[in-house]
Amino acid sequence: MLDTTAVDPVSALITTATAWLAQDPDPETRAELRVLLQQAEDRDPAGVAALHARFDERLAFGTAGLRGEIAAGSNRMNRVLVSQAAAGLAAYLLEQVDQVRPGGIPSVVIGYDGRRNSHVFATDTASIMAGAGIRAILLPRLLPTPVLAFAVRHLAASAGVMVTASHNPPNDNGYKVYLGDANDGSQIVSPDDVAIARQIQRVADTQLVPDLPRAAYETAPESVVQAYVDATAALAPAPTAQVNTVYTALHGVGWDTTRRVLDAAGFDLPTLVDAQIAPDSAFPTVAFPNPEEPGAMDLAYQTAREAGAELIIANDPDADRLAIAIPDAAAAEGYRRLSGNEVGNILGWRAAEIAAQAPGDGGANGTLACSIVSSPALKAVADEYGLDFADTLTGFKWVSRAPGIIFGFEEALGYLVNPGTVRDKDGISAAVALLSLASELKAAGSTLAEHLDAFAEKFGYFASGQISVRVTDLGEIDRVMARLRESPPALIGSSRVDHIDDLSGGFNGLPPSDVLRIVLTDGSRVMVRPSGTEPKLKVYLDTSSAVGTLAERTETASAALADLDRGMRALIG
């Protein structure tokens, strides 16, 4: 007999969406949801599909916090989701402080960038945190992510929240969480992310957003920003030569703080890419506000050609990443953007030199760290200078936690040059360190291009490449990873595989991660992993040569890289 009491799936979906609508304080997402509800009630397939996309899942809170498209629904970024996250994080902080200081009051500092809804998400967070009994401190205005990371330690806060989606598409936003105290202001990792997510889900299941207590919060004084400026400017000695530089903020929030730092450090201010210097959440001049993306730096190249610039500095929209370009007559634009590995390697060399010159027992001390998918060259630097080396899982939540770290980087344009004050990637302090290096080289009659050659002559020539395969079916990534595990290759291109490290169960102290590290008998390396933020399979290729002249080293490593690239493309289809 037919069960006539079964609930129509569309009706159940409408009930879920209607309940969400009832607690949504945002007029824009409420209006959007009303339209979709009416379409679903009319059984319009498009409306039903849109509701499914927004409500079948919940935007997961993890080690990257939250990040997604701004829209209505549990699987999107909006004021309901952010309010639940704030209340859940507050409950977690109260629980943690009660375990060590019963009756203690935890604190949180909150920052926000220039993206759509960043300010309202930040103020919602501050008022809900305060209502829960947390000391909530909002930064005084829109500011770069590194300032928030700095403020967590500077204010001795229990936690920090940064509202940003970094270099994501214009309609995205996100919610990045840092922890103070024993975490030294680093981003959250497991098991804290799981515990926070559990509290957020409890709030979502048991409380309505309009019923969450709210209270007045503090606003941090400008002296917090000035303290970041002073600490960052102190990274560079007085410049010995001024470098003709172009700067772009890519419509983000980096310029005002960068200007203050450069001025305090004694550098001439750069020529600006005027069309990209002011914060603009629409990112009108770029298809994708990421300096790694094709076309993103075209206006910077044009400005640099007009100014005869010796250096281009670009920050991503929240200024936690740094891109560098140098003159190159062989490039169509007249400039070549350095890879994240190239910048990381020479900044790591600079850090090692500074460590070697520091007063002490006559040797360099500290740790150079990079993510496992970044160039192996940093280990060569550490070995040469007698420093410790740590490779970590991808993400600065891991890089920043390397014991004794004095410098860290990841190939995706992230650099940590000032771990004493900021335990996260920082595109402004990295720009100061790089500009200081360029100034020293210019005073000595050299250039960054020549310095890269000097690196290859001292440590070997390291070539890196990447294959990124976007998929529409996420199952395809799982199938490729399973195939590589079940039928491991004996050859990649013409190079024989020596061994494969499967990090899925953890490896040499690294937490479990869906990563395969393939080591070839010639010393080359291939890393394969799913992207953590996009529907992509990512493959990282690294080769090197320390034999022969610079030209011979370059040719050998480049030929090996091309062979690996062909071999991996054939393997993954």
TrEMBL record:
Domain named Alpha-D-phosphohexomutase alpha/beta/alpha: residues: 59-203, 227-325, 355-455
Protein name: Phosphomannomutase
Keyword Lipid metabolism belongs to the record: no
Domain Alpha-D-phosphohexomutase C-terminal, first and last residues per copy: 469-545
Required co-factors: Mg(2+)
Keywords noted in UniProt: Isomerase, Magnesium, Metal-binding, Phosphoprotein
Family matches, as Gene3D superfamilies: Alpha-D-Glucose-1,6-Bisphosphate, subunit A, domain 3, Alpha-D-phosphohexomutase, C-terminal domain
GO molecular function terms noted in the UniProt entry: magnesium ion binding; phosphopentomutase activity
Pfam family, one: PGM_PMM_II
Example GO BP: carbohydrate metabolic process
Assigned protein family: Belongs to the phosphohexose mutase family.
Keyword rRNA-binding attached: no
